[in-house]
Structures are given as structure tokens and as C-alpha cells.
Amino acid sequence: MTATIIDGKTIAKEVRSELKIEVAKLKEKGLIPGLAVVLVGNHPASESYVKGKIRASEEVGINSRLIRRESSISERELLELIETLNADPAIHGILVQLPLPDHINPDKVIATISPAKDVDGFTPVSVGNMVIGQEALLPCTPHGIMHLLQRSGVQIAGKHAVVVGRSNIVGKPISLLLQRADATVTMCHSRTADLASHTKQADILIAAVGRPEMLTAEHVKPGAVVIDVGVNRHEGKLVGDVKFDEVKEIASAITPVPGGVGPMTIAMLMRNTVEAAKRIGK
Ligand SMILES: NC(=O)C1=CN([C@@H]2O[C@H](COP(=O)(O)OP(=O)(O)OC[C@H]3O[C@@H](n4cnc5c(N)ncnc54)[C@H](OP(=O)(O)O)[C@@H]3O)[C@@H](O)[C@H]2O)C=CC1
Ligand SMILES: Nc1nc(=O)c2c([nH]1)NC[C@@H]1CN(c3ccc(C(=O)N[C@@H](CCC(=O)O)C(=O)O)cc3)C=[N+]21
């Protein structure tokens, strides 16, 4: 049996169309959601992701502002820029594209973003609220994955979810959201002994490793739902963390790369920006 392909590109488009209608209504009331995207240096992958974010903002009707700074910017200057954006009433969302140059401490930069404008859901306040189940802007990639699962009709409650990767931006928060949706969750990482023995038990397998096509058919239980978060440039093309051609033959559903989780991440950023604008108001 070949797996159903979970079409993130199409689902993300639906989310953006819904948001476009919502933004038009907010505009009638005089509220225009504003997003500031801060890009330090000219990391090629970041350039491409940032372009996607600006394009999506235009489509939805969000006022986006791309703020570029040289990689030589000091940490203090960057923190000052964020303070200025925190105080700017036209800006409801602030995103600082990662990674940052080595001389800048990303934790310090993130912690300076006002939690009300934290559309990435990365600040300690947002993370804390998410952990204790209080209202918070959720990090975009895990939020997007939950949407994909829900809109594809995947049952989560009572299922065994295995997450490979434990980063702050993907692995850790998706584990938490799945657990909150009543899955039983196993978290794996680079020190996990016998990875396949864990992943083979997954009803829902989340791959967030950053290693091209690392997870193969040998890691997957027949009938599993496989979500591939990886975006790796490998031998001139874009591939996930999952060996797609092989795994699609045994999984019941799978996300492709590109066209799976990536577009959903951007759609959730749009959603968080609209949400932040509504909460902050005019
Ligand atoms: N589609 C999207 O919207 C997004 C895609 N991504 C992509 O997702 C992938 C992961 O990103 P991110 O979480 O930021 O990456 P990180 O590098 O921050 O984290 C990778 C995680 O994978 C674990 N890991 C590394 N090697 C192995 C291994 N051999 N076996 C098991 N676990 C391993 C690491 O373990 P340890 O903690 O022990 O080091 C770590 O927890 C990347 O390809 C990235 O480009 C990221 C964000 C958004
Ligand atoms: N502050 C911050 N917030 C982030 O959300 C953030 C970040 N920094 N740094 C890097 C990661 C990575 N990330 C992606 C977003 C979209 C795609 C995406 O749309 N990918 C397309 C392909 C894009 C292409 O062709 O290059 C797809 O999978 O179909 C991928 C990766 C967000 N990140």
C-alpha cells in the first residue's frame, strides 16, 4: 500500500485564504497587522525562508517590514533595534531569523522580544506559558504540524508518537503539543541507543534531525503516519530527514519535502501575527 501524501502546500494555502478574509475584516476596523522580520547577514537559506515569509504576508494582507542588518552589527545594537520594534505601535509581530552570527547570543536576543509580539513563540515567557497550558503564541513549526495532523484527520489521542530531535524550535515543543493532545510520547536524540527500536514503535513519527534521508524503511512501522520536518540541501536538491521513496511504500501517510511542513510553518507565522494584532489591538 502506498501512503497518502499529506499536502502541506495546499493546506497552507487554505489557512492563508482564511486569514486573508480575517485580515480584510480587521482592516475595516482600522487594524492592519504588522510583522517585522529581522535578518542579520546574508545566510543563503535564511534569504530564501525570509522571502517566503514576506510573500505570504503580502498575500494575506499583513504589512511586513524586512529589516536587514550587516553581520557586523553588535549584540547591543541588535537589542536596541528590538526594543524599538517592541515600542512601535504599527508592529504586532517580531521575528529574528536564526541562525545569528557567532558573536551574538541568540537567547539574549530572543528574550528581549516582547512576549505579546513573539510570533515565533520562542521567548521564555511564551515557552513557559505553553508548558503550563496557558494561552500563548505557539512556535510555528510545531503548531503547523498539529494543524497538518488535525486537518488530515489523523487520530492523536492514545497513539504512540516518537519524536526524533529535541531542539527548542521543533523537537521539544512538538513533543509537548502531542502529549497535550493525549499521545504517549517518546523523545529521541543523538545519544539514543538503538534508534530504530524506538521509531519502529511509532504510530506517529516526527523526524526533526537535520540529517538528509537518515530515517529509512527500517525505522518505520507499517501503517505509521510520518511527518518529515527536515529541510536539507543535499547533492543540489532539497530533501527531508526521511527517505521518502522507500518510506512512502510502508507508511499510511507522509509529508513530502518540499511541500509538507515548510509551507505550514509560514502559514502559522501569518496566523500568529494576526492573533497578536487582535490581542494588542490598535
Ligand atoms: N520545515 C520547517 O519549517 C523547519 C524545518 N527545520 C529543519 O528541521 C531539521 C531539524 O531542525 P532543528 O530542530 O532546528 O535542528 P537542531 O540541529 O537544532 O536539532 C537536531 C536534533 O536532532 C538530534 N540528532 C542529531 N543527529 C541525530 C542522530 N544521528 N540520531 C538521533 N538524533 C539526532 C540532535 O540531538 P542532540 O540534541 O543530542 O544534539 C538534536 O536534538 C533541520 O533539517 C531543519 O532545517 C527546522 C525548522 C523549521
Ligand atoms: N526565527 C526563526 N523562525 C523560524 O521559523 C525559522 C528560523 N528562525 N530559522 C530557520 C528555520 C527554518 N524554517 C523554515 C521555514 C519554511 C520553510 C519552507 O517553506 N520550505 C519549503 C521549501 C523552501 C525552499 O525551496 O527553499 C518547503 O519545505 O516546501 C523551510 C524552513 C523556519 N525557521
From TrEMBL:
Task: Write the record's keywords in alphabetical order, separated by commas.
Answer: Amino-acid biosynthesis, Histidine biosynthesis, Hydrolase, Methionine biosynthesis, Multifunctional enzyme, NADP, One-carbon metabolism, Oxidoreductase, Purine biosynthesis
InterPro entries to which the protein is assigned, alphabetical:
Aminoacid_DH-like_N_sf, NAD(P)-bd_dom_sf, THF_DH/CycHdrlase, THF_DH/CycHdrlase_cat_dom, THF_DH/CycHdrlase_CS, THF_DH/CycHdrlase_NAD-bd_dom
Biological process (GO) annotations held by this record are:
L-histidine biosynthetic process; methionine biosynthetic process; purine nucleotide biosynthetic process; tetrahydrofolate interconversion
Its catalytic activity? (6R)-5,10-methenyltetrahydrofolate + H2O = (6R)-10-formyltetrahydrofolate + H(+); (6R)-5,10-methylene-5,6,7,8-tetrahydrofolate + NADP(+) = (6R)-5,10-methenyltetrahydrofolate + NADPH
Chain positions recorded as NADP(+) binding sites: G165, R166, S167, V231
Quote a single Gene Ontology cellular component term: cytosol
What name does this protein carry? Bifunctional protein FolD
